[in-house]
Each structure stands twice: as C-alpha cells, then as structure tokens.
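Quick question: what would this complex look like in 3D?
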Amino acid sequence: MLNLYKKELQYYLNSPIGYIIVILFVVFANFLFMKDIFVVGSASMRPFFTLIPWLFLVFIPALTMRIISEERRTNTIEVLLTLPVSETQVVLSKFFALATIMGVALVLTMGMPVSLFFLTKLYFPEVFIAYLGSFLMSSSFIAISMFFSSLTKNQVVAFLASIIALFFLLVSGTDFLGTVLPRVILDFLTYFVPQYHFQNFVKGVFDMRSVMYFVSLISIFLFLTIVNLEKRD
Amino acid sequence: MISLSSVTKRFGPPTGGVTAVNTVNFKAQTGEIIGFLGPNGAGKTTTMRLILGYLYPTEGKILVNDSDPLENRIELLKQVGYLPENNPLYQEMGVSEYLNFISAVKGADGISEVVSHVGLQEVLSKKIEELSRGFKQRVGLAAALLGNPDILILDEPTSGLDPLEQEKIKNLIKGLAKKKTVIFSTHILSEVEDVATKLIIINKGKIVYDGAKPKGSGAVGKLFKKLIKE
C-alpha cells in the first residue's frame, strides 16, 4: 500500500495541479485571516476557522475530482486492479495521499496563529484543537469527494457533484433549515451535520463524539467508494 | 494452467442484458501459446478479464493454477502478467518510474533484465507520453513481464503497431513461451499463424474452435472465415 500511496503523492508533487490548489488555498485562507485583523479589527483565529469549511467546499473537490474518474477515463484502473492489490488498498492509498496534501496545506496556514501570537494573547491548545477539527473535516470531505469521483469518468461531473453534496451538507448546519423544518427534527438532524461537530473543535472543545462522527463519515464514504470499485459490470 | 468450465458472463439485468461470454470451456497448459481469435465484440477481452478475476462470471468455474481467481485474486495476480487492451499507461510517469512502481507493487525484482529483454534501455529516462506507440507497447509488455509470471495474458499486444514493431513483439512472445502459459488475443490472422501453438476462436461469446493450429499458409484464415460465417 505504501507504494500506491507514494505513487499518488508523486503525481501531485510532479504536476502543477497540487501546487496551484495548495497555494490558492493558503492565499485565500490568509485573506480571510487578514480581513478580520485589518478590516474588522479582531485579532482572533475563530473567524478564520468559521470560514474554512467554505474553502474546503471548493478546494477539496478540485483536488479530488480526478482521483478515480481519471483512472476510469484512461482505463488505468484496469492496470491498477489487475496488480496484486485490493480495492481497499487502492482507495486507502489515494485517500491518505490526498489527506497528506490537505494536511500540508493546513500546516502552511499556521503562520497565521504564530503571527497572531505577537499581537495578542493566544491559547495554543485551542488553536491546535481547531486545526485538528479542520483536518478531520477536510478528510471527511475528501472521502465524500472520492466517492463522487468513483461514480463517473468525467472529472467535471465529479467536481460539480461533490460541490453540490458538500454545499448541502454545510448549509444543513446553518439556520437556513430552521425556516423550513420543525425544531424537533432540526435538533435531531444537527447531530448528523459536520458544522455542528466542527464548531466544538473551533471552540477548543475536544469531544470524542465529534472525532467519532468524522471518523464514521470518512469510513462510510471510503467503504462506498470501495464497493463502487468492486462493481465492474 | 488455466481452466474455464461453462463460464458465462452477462452484463446488465438478467432479462434484456447482454451475454458477452456464453458457456465457454477451454484449458491452457504450461508451454502453450494460445492465439485467441475473434471478430470485434466476440468476447475476447471479457474472457481475459474473467480469467484475471477483474470481472466476475455470472455462471461457471474458472481455475488459474488450481485456484479460483475470485477467492485468491491477489495471490493469483502475482503469478499473472497482463497487458490490457489499448495498453493504458500512466502517461505522466517516466518509464523507469512506472516500471519501478509496478515492480514494487508486485514485489518483484529484475527490472534490468526485463528492460533489456524488451529493449527499453534507450527510453528509460523518458516520460511515457513522449514515447512512440511501439515503445509504449513495450512498456506495457515489460510491466506484464515483471515478477516473471507463470501466465501471460496479452490483449491485442500488436494493435496499432507498424509491421516492424509487430515483428519485434511477436518474437518477444515466442521467446517467452517455453516456461509460461501465454494467451494473446488478436484479430490479425497472420499473427496467430506466426506465434500461436494452439488456436481458440470465439464468436458472439461462444467458442467455435479449440484445438491445434491448422498447418499451412493461410489455413488459419480459411478456418476463421468458415467458422465466423456459420
């Protein structure tokens, strides 16, 4: 599996796509951070973490869209799946490679809390937990986007389907649904919404239930992707 | 050794679907080079994919080296080298990088022997996308040969190549056969005459001939035309 992981990672290291996506992500993340410091006048990491899921919404489908759809289009998936590897190994190696790239992108935004440290009091464990939440949320979005990439040979279709699915997942955590759904149903649904669990991390609360939520979301969508790869008829 | 017993593969729903392979039976022994002949859409590629466990049979039993590809797919794929139809390759990779990757996944060594065997030394440092069709085909063949597999399944190995390149690939296949089971599909009749030791003809999913290669110039072509017309 390590060889498959290296191959996937190598693809992003050897092509401009990975660099462009990571650089744009870091630039936009810095913009969100700077906007709050210089325009709003708030020296805090919280506005940044509140908006980061919306960056994931665009950048993760862009990063992930080709991961399986391109293999299907060029039929290299047949080369891969006639090597002595299982579908599970293929999917996991691709997932870990993408999670590594997203992890690197998040690490590159850590200049923000460091610079903030010189301006104001910053409680580092809280920031660390928020970063952990961001990593878990981005990984769950990668798993969801990988599933959509496994459904089609067309990268653009995979990209759009992922964006639509992630958008509904994100807005379902906002007050938007409160206008159309009864309170009882909304309260119940809230537990299934990534934003609800992510907000715990943003507040600096390390809640194992939220960790389990993201791990479950990742597992479900990776499992569905594996099932999808096993179906070859 | 490869054995297929009453293997059927249907795509789509049970009623109204397409039967790509219909009650196919044949055996392939070590040392045989089987020319798998048939018109386009006859079921050659599907049969090869079934042998590899890449597709699952709707009915019937497949054994590869006495083991079921569906039960021991990963172990079995260590013993099989496969060149898929149209030779899909990771175009962005370098030749050396690609062969190293395949070799690492197969847990195989001996890249340099395979490289010199198929004649890839001069293009090792190039990217696959920069290669001519002939060299790309050799890269695919080298990948199939890595790990010294007992069984080679080659789906139209000379497709789209010029006569000179076709000749090189044919000689390569002939040189490999002594200790291996080789199945190669083609719709080029002369290729079967030149390379195969045994002939299987498939038409509309059914095996219409399984036996020794007919002797004499043009004999394969005559037999093929006769069987396909019937």
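Answer marked as accepted. Residues 163-176 of chain B form the longest helix (14 residues).
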